[in-house]
Amino acid sequence: MLLGTVLALLVLGVGGAGPASAHAALRSTDPGDGSVLRSAPRHVTLTFTESVGLRDDSFRVLDPGGHRVRTGEAGRAGGRSDTARVTLSGELGEGTYTVAWRVVSADSHPVSGAFTFSVGKPSAATVAVDPGPTEDPATAALHHIARYLAYLAAALLIGAAAFVALCRPPDTAPLRRPLVASWWTLLASTVALLLLRAPYEAGTGPSAVLDVSALGDTASTRPGALLLARLALLAPVAFLLTRAARRPVPTPAPSAAAGAALAVGLALTWSAAEHASAGTQVPVAMTSSVLHLLATAVWLGGLVALLVTLRGTTDAATVARFSRVAAASVTVLVGTGVYQSWRGLGSWQALTGTTYGRLLLAKLAAVAVLLAAAAVSRRWTAALADCGTAVRERERAPERVPERVGGPPGGGEPAPEPPDPAPPAGTAVEAHRRGLRRSVLAEATVAAVVLGVTTVLTGTVPGRAAAEAARSAPAGGVLPASVTTIPFEIGDSGSGTVQITLDPGRTGDNAVQAVVFGPDGSLAAVPELRLSFTLPDRDVGPVDAQLVDRGGYWSANSLTLPLPGTWTMRTTVRVSEIDQVSESRRIRIER
């Protein structure tokens, strides 16, 4: 019943957060989105903000007619794990090609998108391609539920076991049911995650769990291997739990050491599958992540264990020992949490400007409430300890029987009245125990919410990666490039067009690429091409793009547009030594 209550609290705590957002972010593509190439490329290369896993269908390349182009197997560029590359087999004809891609980010979540490039000149009409849903709603919901249950079950399993080993309650029998329930919950949720892995990555429905070949493919991936490792670790955990259940005495040192090693191994199956395994300072980040998970489990699982034992005959010494263990866990959580926040955010702006940062603020607010509840629990703990000491001293003191002072019996002054009887020894202790139980219940409730927010954070792209993608991502649904086509007259020779790609088409630094096409639609060489931008509403500009002739196309690596708004883009094409033509277009630049 208690486990079900905590599970319900966790669902309430995370239910309003919505599904996890994007994970690995696309940093760049080669060829660039919307680019026009003089000759066909030999490869298509994607670069991401963190390492990604490849699938058999990571790339689909469609020709101008919508037919699939023959490609090689998906691989890496230069052996870098944050890249995905595919070789284009055969010659590509003239026209616009569409690339649909799908990879698995380092935190084990699928990411997908699409972009286009042209060979020779763009097609009159491009192929509309659906890269497929990143996640099937039903499969994603089941996957998220199983993931949350796995987190919570691991916290209760590790925390309750640590409570028995470190706090040494006089009676461990009430904890056997939560320990067994958390073990079975972790086993069932891990099996569910393993079966759902293939349809979750592919974006297909839950019925795909019946595909045995897909399950075999999952086992060969890193997320699948880590889930199998977690299942393997649960076998010796079950052995230790069975052995401990047969012993009425506290867990011996060898079993405690084995349990600690297994707890570290279980924590690694999460850390190696999430953001800590990618990016900068991976060894330090992995160590910090494992310590953070273990400290969370010892605190949250220990709170649940304490709440269970407070219903029985838990003594003040056990409560005091848990108070010290909880304080140590909080110290570890603060240290590792600060490091992981710095690593994930990258800047103060990301704290309020990204989903990751806003979730982190929500977690910090919940932790502040949790610490306040913990302070109340510590006061009740101190009061319970003081009351227990007073009771023990009273029990050790000899009973004093009042005696008559003075003359013989029946004469003299009457004997003094006996003192009022002391309240029953257990009354004050029980009152303090009830107060502590209420404060621990509140603490466990808030802690469950904190764990829920933490679970959502692990499925959210870090602020550092989001900011990096915003600065440099050109395609794939992350930051689409702005493409503008401007026609111009060339006297009696007819008309031509200039295709201008502004990448990513937002405030800040942009890359510019311009291609000139002649009357027949072929690439045209012109003596000079100038491009300037003006923001009339703010009296900004003109800002010269300073285009450079690259031999067939013109480009500028860095054009800074400082403000959002509707800019006027003026293009000047000099078609001869004495003739030139200028055209203007209004384009919208977003922040």
Protein described:
The protein has helices at residues 2-15, 137-167, 173-202, 212-219, 222-245, 253-271, 282-309, 316-345, 349-353, 355-396, 425-458, 463-472, and strands at residues 26-30, 35-37, 43-48, 52-53, 59-62, 83-87, 95-105, 110-119, 482-489, 495-503, 508-517, 528-535, 540-544, 548-549, 554-561, 565-574, 580-589. Strand 9 and strand 10 form a beta hairpin. It has 591 residues and is α+β, with helices and mostly antiparallel strands. It has twelve helices and 17 strands. Helix content is 47%, strand content 20%. The strands form four sheets. Strands 2, 4, 5, 7 and 8 form a five-stranded mixed beta sheet that branches. Helix 1 packs across helix 11 and helix 2 runs antiparallel to helix 3 (173-202).
Oligomer status: single chain
Along the chain, the helix and strand elements come as: HEEEEEEEEHHHHHHHHHHHEEEEEEEEE
The low-confidence parts are 1-22, 472-480
Total strand segments:
17
Shape descriptor = elongated
Whole-number radius of gyration? 34 Å
SS-derived structural category? alpha+beta
Q: What's the story with the biggest beta sheet?
A: 5 strands, mixed
**Helical stretch tally:** 12
Question: Could you provide a short overview of the structure?
Answer:
This protein is an alpha+beta fold. The protein has 12 helices and 17 strands.
Structural features:
591 residues, alpha+beta, five-stranded mixed sheet, five-stranded antiparallel sheet, 12 helices, 20% strand, elongated
Topology of this structure?
Blueprint: H1 2-15, E1 26-30, E2 35-37, E3 43-48, E4 52-53, E5 59-62, E6 83-87, E7 95-105, E8 110-119, H2 137-167, H3 173-202, H4 212-219, H5 222-245, H6 253-271, H7 282-309, H8 316-345, H9 349-353, H10 355-396, H11 425-458, H12 463-472, E9 482-489, E10 495-503, E11 508-517, E12 528-535, E13 540-544, E14 548-549, E15 554-561, E16 565-574, E17 580-589
Parallel strand pairs: 2-8
Antiparallel strand pairs: 1-3, 3-6, 4-7, 5-7, 7-8, 9-10, 10-11, 11-15, 12-13, 12-16, 14-15, 16-17
